[in-house]
Amino acid sequence: xxxxxxxxxxxxxxxxxxxxxxxxxxxxxxxxxxxxxxxxxxxxxxxxxxxxxxxxxxxxxxxxxxxxxxxxxxxxxxxxxxxxxxxxxxxxxxxxxxxxxxxxxxxxxxxxxxxxxxxxxxxxxxxxxxxxxxxxxxxxxxxxxxxxxxxxxxxxxxxxxxxxxxxxxxxxxxxxxxx
Length: 179
Hints:
Layout: E1 2-5, E2 10-13, H1 15-20, E3 27-30, H2 31-35, H3 40-56, E4 58-64, E5 71-79, E6 89-96, H4 98-120, E7 126-128, E8 134-137, H5 139-144, H6 158-178
Antiparallel strand pairs: 1-2, 1-6, 2-3, 4-5, 5-6, 7-8
């Protein structure tokens, strides 16, 4: 948990969050010192989000810790005793999403390898899901049926792809008959 007081620009960081960020225990620090706990590219994003909280009411972004390979989802909202935003604080939680980010990176890498393998095939390839929706295809498949770049889209129905491909099949059949 973290608690930012924008009036005096101080942030209280609980023991558990401090340890995740590589500190020995709970601290109260300046806003600048708090921001230094996060990677350089994420500092300004976090600061902008904190500044915008009084207008939007909530903070929700993912940031990388500065001194540990830890990704955190920072969620927070305005807390005030009165109905206005004077003397308001922003109180939030930091959720460790490192494992999820790693899994996303592994999935992206696997998809990239799969796409490279499909494109290197000498034959056309297409994959449909159980509802007969288009999932994947390679360039050879697209070229075989003379689909323009961007015509095929994941989720297209089998019937829609078949109908679009029928023009190429008819023109090939007509060319073969006239030869």
